[in-house]
Amino acid sequence: MSIGSPFDARTLPLNTKRNWREWSGYYAASAYSASHDIEYNAIRNAAALIDVSPLFKYRVSGPDATRLVDRVITRDATKIKPGQVIYTPWCDEHGKVVDDGTIARLDDDSFRWTAADPQLRWLRLNTRGLDVKIDETSESVAAVAVQGPMSRAVLERATGDDFSALGYYRRRAATIGALAVDVSRTGYTGDLGYEVWIDAARAPELWDALMTAGRDYQVRAAGMLALDVARIEAGLILLEVDYTSARHALIPEQNYSPYEIGLGRLVNLEKEGPFVGRAALQREIENGGPARRLVGMELEWDALEALYQAQGLSPMLSPAAWREQVPLYAGSRQIGRATSGTWSPILKKNLAIGSVDAAFEPAGSRLQMEWTVEGRRGRVGATVVPLPFLDPPRKRA
Fold first, then answer.
1. Tens of pLDDT along 18-40?
2. In terms of residue numbers, what domain contains 13?
3. The sheet that has 110-115: what strands, in order across it?
4. Overall pTM surpassing 0.85 (yes/no)
């Protein structure tokens, strides 16, 4: 049974369409407005509040907290300094990704760990011989993402502090009125943005403060439909959409290593400490790397238009992102699959993320994607392009 978010007292009245979906056991708004376009525009042109409380959250603390983090993730946890946040995958013993998320170092001996899937049992299975404590804080800690070019202005007005010095993937404690919060310069939109973490009992007060501070900046609540478009533009992958967790894989093809989903840069095979999956990942590299790779693609408009014209129709593209497995071809041979895509309102392009044979990873590779119009299958040309599709300088400025 799904439950409500700590922000429900404020977000329920805003969801005039009662457009909800389930996210990790919570009710999450798909869209608050009649159309999610206005919420997407807030993310890209003003400021948006996105309830991200359904993330699974853990506090890892104790003398061996760093050793546990280093034992589980593919990155070097000994280099994470207090006030720093990293994004990382973690793998099973076969080098296949279990999940990905952020880890924030709160102080010398404690971390905040976020994940898309439940990880408490997995973390505890890896604590053998370590003096470490793992607390699940998924329900006790609420979080709201403040995203968009005006997000810093909103946050500074709410706190009365200057946040220009808070670097990308850094965090610090702050106060908003009488509310104690933790602010990280992170997000899932590929834009300038922050995530604000607070005790769940005080979540409605935080929402009120941010909405009041953002009134002059056209701040508005944004749901999952707008977020999905933004994250694809940013080239950000989604668990159980762009890859399958090793925990849920039913066949070998559903298992993915970090190198297969664009996260190879986050694997440190040189770090001193052992980590789960290291030997398998080392073998993968020694054997020439993975046979398939994650890529971004731009789809040809003229070819798509021709498919609709053949049926006497004008092109019709949903404003919502799609999430499904779509075959990709080179000539007569299937060489991969697209996993998600969207029409980008800001780039004015039809975009897709997919998994292809390694030979087609280089930018400029020419592919074809299956596209169905009125039950008739056709193909649309696609060109491999570097990810992310959209990378505004303000994201890191």
1. 999 999 999 999 999 999 999 99
2. 8-50+140-222
3. 85-91, 97-107, 110-115, 56-61, 133-136
4. yes
